[in-house]
Amino acid sequence: MEHKFKTSYMLAVILFLLACQIASAQQKDTVVVNADLGTVKISKYIYGQFAEDLGHGIYGGVWVGPNSDIPNIDGIRKDVVEALKKIDVPDVRWPGGCFADQYHWKDGIGPRKDRPKRVNMWGNVVDDNGFGTAEFLEFCKLIGAEPYLAGNVGSGTVREMKQWVEYLTYPDGTTLSNLRKENGHPAPYHIKFWGVGNESWGCGGEMTPEFYADQYKRYTTYLSNYGGNHLFKIASGPNGSDYHWTQVLMKDVGRRMNGLSLHYYTIAGPSWGDKGPSTNFPEKLYFDALKKAKQMDEIVSRHSSIMDQYDPHKHVALVVDEWGIWTDALPGTNPGFLEQQNSMRDALVASTTLDIFNKHAARVRMANIAQMVNVLQAMILTKGKQMVLTPTYYVFDMYKVHMGATYLPISIHSANYTFDGDSLPAISATASKDSTGKVHITLSNIDPSKKQTVVIDLRGINLHSVHDGQILTAKSFDSVNTFENPDNVKPKPFHDARLRDGRLTVEMPSKSIVALELQ
């Protein structure tokens, strides 16, 4: 009798443990979308790009010259233009980055044959200045983006920056506006976004926040609005979690700036000197990258809290104009060129980071991923006549539905992705409603091996259909697109979403990003 009892007891324990495992494997993630509580617009400028004169980011990536056998529009790569038009790029930041504080704008105007050759200290190469102000502004026009110019504070002068604004925007009658006309552009340019220095705490001059605050006020005193053009002036802001910098700028500058920049890079490896490879990396570097990317939420929250003390009505935008994953340079390349591959991991870094920006859309009203072509977490890679779109490019394509839409507040109860005793929420999401009433939901499952069943409770709205689903996933988290296999990681139609009685159930594969449209 005792033996039978023990056998029955053990069987019950085994069945209980098995049931727990099954339940765990089938655990549902719940998302509540409060569609009737949305009041904040997601600024389209959150989806901005960054094109620094660095490595092959401009030369070979955007600019090949009008005499190149690579198809081009007055020297600008035609294939890159078409690719960027498709993702509705709202703005492009140029010429840097660190390069901005060594750049003197007069080097890049006038006949290209007469432009001076200068050493670009970031990569230690000769720059012939073939791509200058007019070329950049033409590029922006071709892709339908607004220019975001970064002015030189580190090695420049107040007079130099003032004259650049006059050259670009003064309508008629001055020596500089006449020079613009001679250089082929009679009408003034419309320039909205203007950065006053870059990383002034580091490569932009190694300043203290107190010193930079005084410099910002000095420079912007002479940055005038001409002919109906109004500058949106962006101050050089903090490095990651340097909350003291934000405190000083908000206290000493306040609403004299329209935006305060923030730079934060995701480093998968243990240090800046060992960032980890961009290909063939282990799960530890996958997990650590996603963990560090998710820290953007705390960083943005704490900077926003400081800004709220001085600017409770949020007149000053938080501008995250450099962000993304930074890995070791590809072997055999110039380390200063910052060339790296772009994997499914990097796509998930992008999607979860964009979810954070969308969540904080009341304060974060502009962001620029680093960088657009061939550098860091690029949208596009080029090699001669070849071009390949990266997994991160496809994230921006899937997420463009949120640009200018109303953010719908959400709450997420997610299963954990656990690795080596540490855990992260597996699910990240954004929900928005566009001007036609359509609701768009993007979801990410960062767990590299487990699928997730996500149940979305849609409150405050009646929706009847779900369609236009897309999914981005890959065989492995380190899968990449190459020039030999450019379609290895590419969105595909997604059909595993069911809408019934106000609840949307989504079956998400591991390491995947899903975009859905509901009506």
Structure, explained:
This protein has 519 residues and is α/β, with parallel strands linked by helices. It has eleven helices and 27 strands. It has helices spanning 2-25, 78-86, 133-143, 158-169, 175-182, 209-220, 243-252, 283-294, 296-310, 344-359, 391-399; strands at 28-34, 48-50, 72-73, 76-77, 91-94, 118-120, 125-127, 146-151, 193-196, 232-235, 259-266, 317-325, 364-370, 380-383, 386-389, 406-407, 410-413, 416-419, 422-425, 427-433, 439-445, 452-459, 466-472, 492-493, 497-500, 503-508, 512-518. The strands form seven sheets. Strands 2-5-8-9-10-11-12-13 form an eight-stranded parallel barrel, surrounded by five helices. A six-stranded antiparallel sheet has the order 16-20-21-27-23-24, with helices on one face. A five-stranded mixed sheet has the order 17-1-22-26-25, with no helix packed on it. Residues 1-26 have low confidence and may be disordered.
Spell out the key features of this protein.
519 residues; alpha/beta; eight-stranded parallel barrel; six-stranded antiparallel beta sheet; 11 helices; 27% helix; disordered N terminus
Supply Rg.
25 Å
- Arithmetic mean pLDDT: 94
Count of helical stretches: 11
Q: Spatial order of the strands in the main sheet?
A: 2-5-8-9-10-11-12-13
Low-confidence stretches: 1-26
Helix content, binned percent: 25-40%
The portion of residues forming beta strands comes to 25-35%
Largest sheet: 8 strands, parallel, barrel
Termini distance? 63 Å
